[in-house]
Amino acid sequence: xxxxxxxxxxxxxxxxxxxxxxxxxxxxxxxxxxxxxxxxxxxxxxxxxxxxxxxxxxxxxxxxxxxxxxxxxxxxxxxxxxxxxxxxxxxxxxxxxxxxxxxxxxxxxxxx
Length: 112
Known about the structure:
Belongs to the P(II) protein family. Pfam families: P-II. The chain is α+β, with helices and mostly antiparallel strands. The protein is built from 2 helices and 6 strands; from the N terminus they run βαββββαβ. The radius of gyration is 16 Å and the shape is elongated. The relative contact order is 0.31.
């Protein structure tokens, strides 16, 4: 099993969520987060200057079986993409075990 952590633009969240549901990744957690990015310059929008050093993003935590890893990453890459600085990051780590409390299932079965 793998844990995928993705930091994406808030504006792309609905698109990413719907695409994940299409490939049957139906359970994940998410948080609104603020981070510091690589872009150091500010922007002007409608005459108002604002800083882009602190970025509002959405953090997704997704645990999938090994067989779902590649397609989940592909969905994130394709649907969170805008081509502009600040599209986000994806991190993948190993999960040793998972349990479903209600049924006491463990391993990949607990993810279904």
